[in-house]
## 1
Amino acid sequence: MKILVVSHSYIIKLNCEKFRTLAQLDPSLEVTIVVPKRWRPGGVMKDTIESKGWQDKGFRVVPIANFSENNQGALCFSWGLVKLLRSFKPEIIQVEQGSKSLAYAQLITLNKLLGLKAKMLFFTWWNLPYSLKFPFSWLEQYNLNNTNGIVVGNIAGYEILREKGYDRPMEIMPQLGVDETLFKPQDATEIRMRLGIENNEFVIGFVGRFVPEKGLHTLLKAVAALGNRSFKLLLLGRGELKDELLKTAQELGLDNQLIQLDSVKHDQVAQYISAMNTLVLPSETTYQFKTLTATGWKEQFGHVLIEAMAAAVPVIGSDSGEIPNVIVNAGLVFPEGDSAALCDRLSQLIEDRDFAENLGRSGYQHCMSRYTNKALARNLLEFYRSL
């Protein structure tokens, strides 16, 4: 089976592990990933990435010149894509840019014009109801009408697509798995010393964008309410709220407890997560966020949760979006925006280290059974074969 995947997400080598693993499951499989030549990720990563091709046996990544360097919906590719399709002749084409993307419409059209007869799939994270106006309504309908299967990142997204009348196969699974060789239980003594963290200090961590919908003000209020307990708050990321958050932390008297790091290389995040005693994802649903095709946002998955689980770090998440479905009973959940409830969950872990350790083990087992690259690759291959 020849599988072609198209997405900006795989410009990062670590993100390719699910598909590289899939290619190793059966010697008859060939997996090619198309990525844009240039992309600006944003978030914790701030630099424009110049993609490079690479391969490993039945797996390869091919950069192709692209139009739009930071807009997922507007991303599409140059004539090099046609040349690749003609030579590779895929049987499965999966585009991971959502239901309204130009790249997906481009691949559908080329599949028809070149007579490839490949099964067409897309991946989407979108998990809030929406309505579209022309031409976006036409674009999405064209894409859905020509789709053989969909991989959806969350339960809400699945339900929305069913409500829109899509009645063909769908599979619920996250876009990216966890590399358990990188995110794993490991000694973090050295990095804690480098950050000035004492042995007895409980480290409360956050990794992600500093934006309103990530609930960081709620986290600061909850941490401030811990009183004289011995802890550090480690915030790893960057974004528009940075200065405001630092000012609020100072006002709350958290100067001596706060450690904030702007930017860390993707492959070094695991080390910082291992230095934490708990990772918190306090996301909050918002309807202030707007794009040309949708309004609002709620947590679509929370990948950092499964990275922490893989490191046996206990997790706490709000009940925004998919978070409770990711955590299930392998972590703690609190009502979004409720700083008192979050403070209560943090207190539980600080005061009962055995409970925290057991929760970390539960999260680890949960992640290993469901969210490793191998587990996801097997599920995805079964889905492809069913199509």
## 2
Amino acid sequence: MAKVRYSYFGLGMAAEGSDKFVGDQAAAFLAYAERDNIRSASADAPAEVPVPLTEPETIPGVAEHDVVAIYDNAGIPSIMHRFRRITNKELFGGSDKVHPAFIIGGEVYDEIYISVYENTMINGKPYSLPMAEPVYNITQDDFAEACFSKGEGWHCITAAEWGLLADISLKLGTLPHGNTNCGSWHGDSAEKGVLIGGGPKTLTGSGPATWTHNHKPTGVHDLCGNLWEHCRGARIKDGYLQAAKNNDAALPETDLTENGDDWQPITDDAGRPLRVSVDGDEIKITAEQQIKDDYSGCRWADVAVECESEQLKELAFFAGEPDAYCFVDSTEGEYILPRGGGWYSGASGGVFALDLNDGRTYSRTDIGGRSAYFKKHSTLNPDTLTVERQRDGKEDGK
């Protein structure tokens, strides 16, 4: 058994276990903390730094990705997973359309970045760091604002981005395990994370590789269990499923307030708005106008989807993980989206787990969040741009 303990900016990291486990966790932590003697608060810190020991990876037919450290406007890095552009056809056999996670503000992006870890908070800003206590008991609006405060391109993970992660995991056959039983995975008690103060939550990234989206140590951790996670840009309102256009939920100017102008109906392939009918324990996604309004939850395998909808597949609103639960409130009002499940979820948790039954003012001890990032297209002439760095949330060229 080996042990290691570090601290940085008041954030502690500790790991105990096999030499390989401790080595992997220490390398991930020190990759950003020790680079160039910890340029922690320097305004001149680069916006993106490759993390040592994590080589770029290409998965035929899925997505190219690698792991980098990206600094925000406070000069503090987050460990991020880079995903490169992919089409629906490549991902789940849909059309040739680019997956909406890569379409932001009407522009197609070649890559997006998603936090490797559930986020912890430092000075009111969320960060993706290993072996940390994840933030919880925060509303979706407050978490989204905290993400936007990190600078241009930073945002709360969106419904489209979570859908991308779930679809990739399904494509790979690596649906993530996680903390679904007070520190361990319900399917195998030998799969454990490091408990926080005796439990039931675990430190970020402290579980085995099977707790990532691709079952690799460099994958995105803790998408199943531990904490439900806010996903901006999808909701149910008066029984209707709605979402932001493509990945516009990544933009602070997108109006996703309760009566905001930028909500659009989630539709079937014929363009008909979709509603959710809840009748006792039966849940049905349908284009019918007459529905039953109630609250319930059931396995995705038992949800009746009475339509063909590529948009539902983009958002991973389908039975990609049959035992994961779909909780829905179709009564009058607005209900926003967390995903993934909690430490208590058992088989009902998973990357496809969905919970559309809480209002936007709700905060709970079992809901946290994860930030994401995109490098906004520069308005400067690329032929004259010699140095590009993020400063105070804006792109500067010199």
## 3
Amino acid sequence: MRTARLWKRLLGVESAVVEGVFIEGEGASTVFVARVRPSSSDRSRCGRCLKRSPLYDRGEGPRRWRTLDLGQNMAYLESDVPRVTCSVHGVTTAHVPWARHGARHTTSFEDLCGWLCAQAPGSSVAELLRVSWRTTTAIVERVVSDLAGRTDLLEGLRRIGIDEIAHRKGHRYITCVVDHDTGRLVWAREGRNSDTLDQFFNDLGDERAGLLTHVSADGAEWIHAVVKRRAPQALICLDPFHIMQWVTKALDGVRRKLWRTLQASGHGSEIKGARWALLKNPLELNVDQRICVAVIAKTNRPLYRAYLLKEQMRAAIAVKGEEGRALLGGWVQWAKRSRLPEFKKLASTIERFRPYIWNTMDEGLSNARSEATNTHLRVLTRRSYGFHSPEAFIAMAMLTRGGLCPELPGRG
């Protein structure tokens, strides 16, 4: 094998010409520098659109790109980068086949960094690759942007889930859209309002929005309003988890009020420790919790009535068709007559969302995929000790949950 071809293989620059390799520094600071140039087919192309363009000038002299290490030593590619006049992008730097436009690292180095960031904390990746954590963040954003530009994540959407997640303190949220059929995160933007969701439908387009059949969401009315306006044919399904969350919150409100009343009279110990016994699934109760519920059934009828309402709702949303609708209607009437203010208020909420709950019963669609994505993103946030910008958070989310993680160099 010729020496030039060997260096091309080692440096991962098969589409470039290696003019020479030299060593700089001594000891631990030794680095390899390879002088390269684009092959004839890659010369005089716009760095953005790769269109052949006339030469503008010779640029600002030699430029270096960090590439994959050679053994224990860092390695760089060095080349002149002229500027060209593109009919679309104007005067811009010429394309180099070994790096993305505007990057100071080679594509193979950035792909390795992106893959590692999907598996480990950015600080560990930064230490391993001998770069700063800000550099790893910028690389992830660039890799995700590049891969997203090669594929249309919004193509073929039929059933989607919409939810929001806080990316830092101060009520700062990201709105996420998940494809139920693939489980992938397909869209994410900063914000939690109708304007943010309108951006999704603008990106999707009216034609593809007309192909949506199901949209799962929580009780956020700004989501429902935008979906009804932009995709009126889609069935909105209210997430069963959030329905039960409303019911358990009402049950806990009844328990708290009763506990405060009993505590004022010196009898608060009668329902001490009853919270989890009341909130858990009856099939998962241990012996002590079963005894606790039995005692409440005999001594605290209002609290036990709230507990039965909770279990009745659990049974109602598990049933499909006309029977499920009848059970839900019976629950609403029972809640209204329960003489429990928390459940009377909840009955009005259930009535307002009844059509969406019916869709959930008939279609069996929940927001579980969105919640699973949110759980994964919270783990990412804890692992990274937060993100300095929403763009960095979104890039990491798309890298790990959007199918935009690059392959390891040389494995494709």
